Amino acid sequence: MDYQKLAIIGEVGAGKTRLVKTLSEISPLETEAKSSIDIGKEYTTVGIDYGRITLADDMALGIYGVPGQERYSFLWEFVNSSLWGLLILIKYGDTPDYNNLDKLLTFFAPEKNQTTCIVGVTHCEDADPASLAALGQEVRAVLMHHNVVAPIINADPRSRESAIGLLQLFNTLNNEQ
Amino acid sequence: MKCIAYVSRTTANERGINLPAGLSNIVQISRKRNPAAQISGVLSYRRGQYVQVLEGPAIEIDNLMKKVLADPRHNDIWVFVDKKVTKRSFDNWRVSIFDFIDQGPIFKTFIEDHQQTLDAFTFEQKARLQDFINLGNNNAVATHYYDGKYLKLLAWPDLNRTSQPQLIMNLCVKLTKNPYPFDSLVASDEFGTYDQVTDIIKDFESLGILTVTEPAPSAVSEPAKPQDIPAKKPSRFYGAIKRFLGMG
Asked: How far is C-alpha A106 from the geometric centre of its chain's CA atoms?
C-alpha cells in the first residue's frame, strides 16, 4: 500500500477542519468538541481531523488536520512519517504565535527531511494589502530562519478550487525533488 | 513639519531568533492612526532590522517617536534623519511597506530630498542601511551575468504583489528544491524573453531571496542546456494525484 500523508497544521480557527472536509472524498472522522473556553467559536478540534483521497486500490493520500499548539505535539509525532506535504495554515487578522511556529518548524524540519511545505494564509479575502504583506514578511522571516523555501499562498478552506490549487502546488513541488 | 527616519533591530525571541513579530500589528495600527495624525511614511523589514520613515506635524512625530523608543520590539535604534521639512516625500497618510524600499518609486523622493545627509554617513553607517537603501554602491548586474549560473530561492516572493502571479509561481517552483540553471529558464520559453527572465531574477536577487552559484566544476566545460535538466521519471503517486485533480 502506497500511503502518504498531508499534514495540515494551524492554530485555532485557521480552517484545518474545513479544509480537510473540502479535500476529502469521504466523510471525515471529526473530533470536534464543544470548547470550554471562549475561543471565538463554539466547537474546536481536540484531536485530529482525518480525511482520505483514494488514488488507486493500493494508493491513498491521508489528510490530517492537526492542532498547531505545542501542547499537541504528541499528535505531530503521529503524522510525522511518510509525509507527502506539510501545510501550515495561518489565520489573517490574528497575530500568529511565532514562537510556536518556530517550534513546529524545528519539529518537522521540512528542509532536513525534504518535506514539501506550503503556508496558507486564510481569512484574507478582505485583507488590507499592506497588513497582508506585513504578515507575509513575518512568516517569511521565520521560514528563512529554518531554511524552508515555501510559498505563502492565500487559501480559502471553504473553496474546492483553492484546496485543489494547494494540492496541485504540492504535487508539482514534489515532482521537482 | 518634520521628518524622522530610523533603523532598529528586532528583539530576539526566547530561542535567540530575531523575528519581525509585530510587523503586521504595527502596520495595522499605523494605518488606523496615522491619517488622523497626518503622518505619512514607509516601513520595511529585512534581515533582523526595521527601517521606518515618518513625516508630519512635529508634535505628532515626536509623540510617535517616544512610543517607538519605549517599544520593546525595537532595539538599538539609530535615528539617521531628524530634520524640519517643508514638504512631504510621501503623499499618503499611511505607512506603506516594501521589501526593499529604495526600489519603491515613492521612496526615490525621500532619497533625493535627503541625499546630502545620507551621503555624509560613515562606511559602517551606510553598511547598516545597505539592506534598505543603496547608498552609492553600483550594484547593477552586468549584462549576461546570470548566463551559465545556477539559481535557487531562499524564500518565495510575495505573490500578492506581483503582476504575473501564475508565471512567477511556475518559475519559483523550478527554483525551490535545487539550484536550477538560468539558461534552462530562458530556453524553456515559459517565462518570457531573455531580458524578461533576467529582470525577474534580478528582482529576486535584490529582494535577498535568491542565491546565485557557479555551476559545479564538472559542468563548467559544457554549460547547462535545457536537456541537461534530468527528465525525472514522475513517481506513480505524482501521476495518480494529477489524475485525481483532473490534470492527467
From this structure: 16
